[in-house]
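Teaching assistant here, posting this on the class forum so everyone can see the example we discussed in section. The complex has two components, and the goal was to see what a joint structure prediction looks like when all of them are supplied at once.
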Amino acid sequence: MAAATAKPTPHSYASSTLNRQLRGFMAKSSVSLFGLLLLSVFLMPLGYMVSTAFKDDAELSAQNAPLWPASAKTYTYQGQEYPLYLVPTEQGVKQMALVAPHREDSDFVDPANPEAGPFTWQGRYRTLAPVYNFAPKFKNFPEAWEQVQFGLLFRNTFVLAIISTLGTLLSCIAVAYGFARFNVPGKSILFVILISTIVLPAQVTIIPLFIFFTKIGWTGTWLPLLVPAFFANAYDVFLLRQYFMTIPRQLDEAAMIDGASPLRILWSVIIPQAIPAITAVTLFHFFFVWNDYFSPLVYLVGKEDLYPISVGLGKLVGTFSRFPGLAMASALMAIALPVVIFFLAQRQFMQGVVITGVEK
Amino acid sequence: MTVASEASAQVAAKTGISQMKRREWSWGFLFLSPWLLGFFFFTGLPILATLYYSFTDYNLVKPDEIKLIGLTNYQRMLTDPQVAQSMGVTLKFALIAVPLGLIIPLTFAVLVNSKHLLAPNFFRTLFFMPTIIPVVASVMVFQGVLNAQSGWINMALGGLGIEGPRWLSDPAWALWALNLIGLWGVGNNMLILLASLQGVPTELYEAAIVDGANAPQRFFNITIPMISPVIFYNLTLGVIFAFQYFVVAMLVGGRNGDPQSATMFYNLNLYRTAFVFNEMGYAGALAWTLFIIVMVLTVLLFTVGQRFVYYASD
């Protein structure tokens, strides 16, 4: 079938390369433009968040205030500040300071020529557009920090995340090593059970666990959130095991001949080879704890001084919907650390997602 | 360590192999033990305990009065209007969320895989980025963006001459609003699809071009069948997670599933029954029913999937 393609004649060759380059350029620019458009729609809420966080209440309720944080530009005339408006004049649209507003006509001063004094402009000044300049306000941040008690929430979340991540790493590395390297009876069935717990609804275990943790006095403490982390989880074990399987067995065997114990092999052969996967698990679990809402909601009920960000901020979602400035400042503070970490380690992070997703 | 000393005691070559095996087994189980213990205590036993509680009238306020009541809780579910209503909300949500969770990430993946796209890594990173934003923060952000008057979405719609709905207070739109929030989580699916798109052999496309297939034909006759295992994997997880949907609904609509129970999901009802009304027995029945539904769906999807999915090794 391939024989059907016609060979280009030397004459048409030059024009067809030019054509192809032009078409390539067209395709590149249209696809990239479409991508940019789609991306800006997708990330638009972030734009809203950042801009709203830097606005004050007056701007948020103002009718024709711009989307970006801004203040009305003013002009000082004879010791008084007056707002500037865009006024259509015979010389085109000009910025004029409104000194005496009336319904049907108003007095303006031309900042370019204040000596001329006020003049009367016929028309409703309310139909004119005010002049704004970029002016971010920072007062939402300290206010939100106080109201949300961010200091406490940050500390709680951080400590929880560090301990939980440590437990996850210790246990999941060991379990993944067990699955990757040891032929124990029933291993394949155990592995299937492990994988199936990924889709297990948390609701089917939470009731007895809650009753049990209440009986032993653990509810209202961090223990129900931290202790299970030391007993491995399917998702991270799976990721690590897949990665460990790619490490050549010859490395283990060489170490074994040298008399290294399995623990020694794990420590000095497997772990150094698996740093990318371990980094991915560290990141995933850190983000998981940062984000986890259901478990702290259930186990820490009433213990506000132990709340992580998710629950602590979550209980203010309803209240804050009436104060967009405060809400967006808090949201910005809550995402700052995850976003920074993500951009620093995005390659490992995104590779980890692919490992867990594709090689099921 | 007793294993090691035993091994040195018995030097016979014949038992040496089984000694090695036993040594491997004990090391293997040692390494697996955190998960084996964790599975037993934090998963296996609780699942069975939930089943037990589902046959009782256990109430957290009066734990001493627990008694077995047979299938009463399951019978009660059949006539409980809250259960029917919350299941309806969950199914309606799944009908929107599952297709969206397939189409949107596929669109993004195809876009960021395009050889015509400049700076593809820039796009991949930024399309993925919202996935890592904590749910609480994204709920707050979307509450602002979806505000009927001051939100940017309705402002943009207004600019196009469309009057935007009252997303968060109109029961007819609340599930759509939740789905919009969910779109910020498509990053994982996008990356998995992207990886499988990159795995499609280029020779297939070259052969198709020679045969005169146009771009849509190539997409539907080569790309889609070749990545069908991953599409199917995303479909299965999408269905399962739709049935476990809870956090965003709780944050947006609270315990009452505002507006007017439009976001009263099955799991929200379960949470309320257990942790607000303390009816652990009844909640156990709700939980086990959910467990069975999820298991049946998973098995069903896998058996159906085997027939439709193309595996390269076949």
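For the discussion questions: Chain B touches chain A through 100 residues (CB under 8 Å). Residues 4-12 of chain B have pLDDT under 50 and may be disordered. Think about how each of these relates to the inputs above.
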